[in-house]
Structure formats: C-alpha cells, structure tokens
Amino acid sequence: MTGTENMLASQADAEIMIEMSGVKKYFPLRGGFFGPTLKVRAVDGVSLTVNRGGIVGLVGESGSGKTTLARMILKLVKPTEGVIKIDGVDITKATAEQETKMRSEIAVVFQDPASNLNPRQTVESSISRPMIIHGVKKSDARAQAHDVMSMIKMDEHYLRSYPHQLSGGQLQRIAIARALVLKPKVIILDEPTSALDISVQAQVLNMLLDLQESMNLTYMIITHDLNVIRYFSDTVAVMYLGKLVEYGHTEEVTGNPRHPYTQGLMGASPILDPSLRGRTKKLLPGEPGSLINLPKGCRFFPRCDKADGRCEKREPDDVTVGPNHTVNCFLYDGRKAGD
What we know:
The protein is of the alpha/beta class. Helix content is 32%, strand content 23%. α4 (123-133) packs across α5, α4 (123-133) packs parallel to α6 and α5 packs across α6 (168-180). The longest helix is centred in the middle third of the chain and has 18 residues, at 198-215. The model is unreliable at 5-13 (pLDDT under 50).
C-alpha cells in the first residue's frame, strides 16, 4: 500500500466529499502528417481525498496540472483513466439523473469575474440565471437572488447594477453569490483573489471562510499565492508536471516542506514576517520540464540538487513522513542509492 493509499485509509472514518484515485488526463498531440501521435500528460496518476467541509489548496508552477484536475471534477474534461467520486458518486460513470443533480452540487469561482458576467445583464439576472436553468421559477429565483446578497455582504440595490458599474471586489462577490444560489456542496476556487487589491483579498477570503463554516462547504482552491494557502486551506496538494509530489496539513507542508520541489516553492514565496527577512531562501533552478518528453525517472530530478542514481532510472513511491503527510521522493523511502 502506497503512502497516499495509507492516507485514504486513515481518513476512512471521516466523511469524504472528494475522492480521486489514479486519475490521469492525456491530451493527444499529433507530430505532423506522418509523425507519431504524442501525448501531453497533463495529469498522471493523482490520488487524493478531501473531507466534507475541508479546504484543500492546489499549488505548483504553471503547467503542473492544477487546473486540468479541477476541470475534471467539474466534468469539463473527461479523465483518460482513474476514478473521481463526489459525495460517493463516481462522476465518470454517473447516470444522466445523477449528472444533472451534480451540476448543482459543484460550483466554480473563476479568476476574472468580469469576463464571466454578461455585460448586458443586470446583477440580478446573472445571479438568477443558474437557478432558472435548473428549473426554479423566475419569481423564486429573484427572491433567492435578494437573499444571497446579504450572504456576500452587499446591499440589494446592487442587483440593479451592470458589471461595468462595479469594482473588482464587488464583481468577485457577485461571482461567489452566483456560485452559492444552487446550494452547492463543493466550490472550486480558481485564483479567486489574484486580480484583487491586498485589502480586498483579505475581505473576500474572510467572507469565503464564513460561508464555508455556515454552509459546511468543501473548497478546492487553486492559487500561486502561498500566503493565501497558509491562511485559507486545511491541507495542501503540491503538483509538479502532472504528479502529486507532496500532500499534507497546511502547517506541516508549509512549515516543514520535505520534497525539494516544495522547498523551492516555499523559498520563492515572499516572507511577510519581518523577523524572518534575513533567512536564506532556496530558489528553484531551471524551468519546468515538458509534459510531452517526460524524464524516465523522477520528474523533478533534472532540477534537483539532491538527486542520485535512482532518480534518473525510476519513479519514486509515495512515502508517509508524518501524520497525514506524504512525499513522493527517494529521500524518505529508507533505502540507499544502490538498492
């Protein structure tokens, strides 16, 4: 049993909302008229669980597979292989009835709300539309639109506004309101604060935490801002070239990162505590590799200063290094380089 599977077993007593096992997504890429069909291995064997009411943060450089993983949960992309369960239902084998129900149980908040709101519709129309699509009467949808405004701490008069009349923070609150109206169980947050000012970021994150507690929501947040992860998430999943390289509780992963890649990510994050400003930071060398021509062994070994002979020959296994903390690295498997 791998380290990640041990984590799944240890969480068996908790109520699991999201369960992913061996999930892969390969995109075919033709190499010319007569060339071979190549594959972009965007996600390559990811397994993780998120408990009901939990918050998991997905981190990693651009191209690591974070967004593709989220798009598979949203059923915008079909997995090449593996199982994805939401509240016990395998969405890869869901019936039409289950899929319709699931559409209302999984919501998403995108990075740029202005590009996802119709500029010719009022805020009330934008919030009401998802409910009307799911069969709610227009009068009831409008009433719920008014109710949800108090949840996002905005006055009801904004319902008559158009997107261009609102600030970035207000637009993001409206996008969150639109995600909430169908009373989802899971919300995917794709860079929800990256386009906002620092002060507004804090307000939006605090509001999301209040909503998560009052509605028992399960969040998956994708962000490059590790300070947001430290503040917001319960657990962290670190991805590199389609693989999950480290997974564990936020305090443990950010405070004591084990994988060399995670250590590099943490080193690239700005230090906000003035007492730690003099600390030496370890930065990642080189650029992320290609998802088409992947290394035979560990995907990080071309950039790793701790690599040995094993790293180039075969992929490491998941190793448990602490309570609910796994690392995909030879440094922790207890065997010598010659083994």
